[in-house]
UniProtKB/TrEMBL annotation:
Entry superkingdom: Bacteria
Membrane-spanning segments: 34-56, 68-87, 94-115, 147-165, 185-207, 237-256, 268-284, 316-335
Name the UniProt record assigns to this protein: ABC transporter permease
Subcellular location: Cell membrane
Length: 337
């Protein structure tokens, strides 16, 4: 009697299959992947714009123009950082540009009263923080929709700036502010370096601290975050306050750049801050964020405006271009992983 093992047919040896390389898709598949283009929309768009504008106008990449673009982008980068924290929680701040204007007027009033520039900067930061706290309390504690709250503070902050300044700009001449806006390290102006430092700090706070984890958790699912002991209302107050303080910083950079504290509304910064965040890959529904992406988005929008100006395109068409970029970015967001 033979054993089953002795009568079983022998199986041919399996062919050697080369081990797969997880996480390394082939180049062709990657190029065809819409999600890849969506993830890197800001970086790819920035590179394409630089190439196109350089071909169209060789002065685009001159040291002087690059330095001017980086300095001009500093204000938008700072506002975008604050907007990123808010949108990461699933909210939105429509008042960032008006808060910046209000803080700039507060700076001008303190300066005209004879306060030193350091005190004027502190006044601007406090003014921005005040608007941010009001937004946070109404959204977090009052449970009012962020769109309605920040739309209201947008109007209130703009009106307060006009009332406090009587609608007149305050000319500001100060050596420190002049150096801040016109000097730096090579092509990197001090204003841009301030924005870069704040971006690094924002990255560390968002991805290396418990607070940042709570921000993303609150944006991902407020119910789940509450169940784990996270105070979502406090997180809301904190992120809107951060956005307000950063709007105060942007106000200081704006005053330094313009040389005056103007009560005029800067509504273009609102659209651009949201556009940069969307371009950068931050989910408008919350829970997913990045810092590098919005910074690249801000640089892309600044390069777009600068390039169109160099080509002699009317300023009336520039908002059309920005709006088109926003819609395309929102469309690409559907394909992000």
């Amino acid at each position: 009697m033979t054993s089953p093992s002795s009568t079983a047919p022998e199986r041919p040896p399996a062919e050697a299959v080369p081990p797969a390389e997880p996480g390394r898709p082939r180049l062709a598949a990657t190029v065809r992947d819409v999600g890849f283009w969506a993830e890197w929309a800001a970086a790819i768009g920035l590179v394409v714009l630089v190439v196109v504008f350089q071909i169209a106008n060789p002065t685009f990449l001159t040291l002087g123009n690059v330095s001017a673009m980086l300095t001009a982008s500093a204000i938008l980068i700072v506002l975008t950082l604050g907007q990123t924290f808010v949108i990461a929680t699933g909210g939105i701040d429509l008042s960032v540009a008006s808060t910046m204007t209000f803080a700039a007027v507060a700076f001008g009033l303190a300066f005209s009263a004879g306060a030193p520039v350091v005190a004027c900067i502190a006044v601007a930061l406090v003014a921005g923080a005040l608007v941010g706290v009001v937004n946070g309390l109404l959204v977090g504690k009052g449970k009012i929709a962020d769109f309605i709250v920040t739309l209201g503070t947008l109007s209130a902050a703009s009106g307060a700036a006009l009332v406090l300044s009587d609608g007149k700009p305050v000319t500001i001449v100060n050596r420190f502010l002049l150096r801040l806006s016109s000097t730096g390290l090579g092509v990197l102006g001090w204003s841009f370096l301030v924005a870069v430092v704040l971006a690094v700090v924002a990255h560390v706070v968002l991805f290396r601290t418990r607070f940042g984890t709570h921000v993303l958790a609150a944006g991902g699912s407020a119910e789940a975050a509450t169940a784990t002991g996270i105070s979502v209302p406090r997180i809301k107050i904190a992120v809107y306050t951060i956005a307000g303080v950063l709007a105060g910083v942007a106000a200081v950079l704006l005053v330094a750049r313009v040389g005056a504290a103007e009560p005029a509304s800067n509504t273009s910064f609102l659209l651009n801050s949201v556009a940069a965040v969307v371009l950068g890959g931050v989910a408008l529904t919350g829970g997913r964020a990045t810092i590098l992406g919005p910074v690249l988005g801000a640089l892309l929008l600044t390069a777009l405006t600068n390039g169109l100006t160099l080509l002699g395109v009317s300023p009336f068409y520039q908002p059309v271009a920005v709006g088109t970029v926003v819609v395309l970015a929102a469309l690409l967001a559907r394909f992000r992983r």
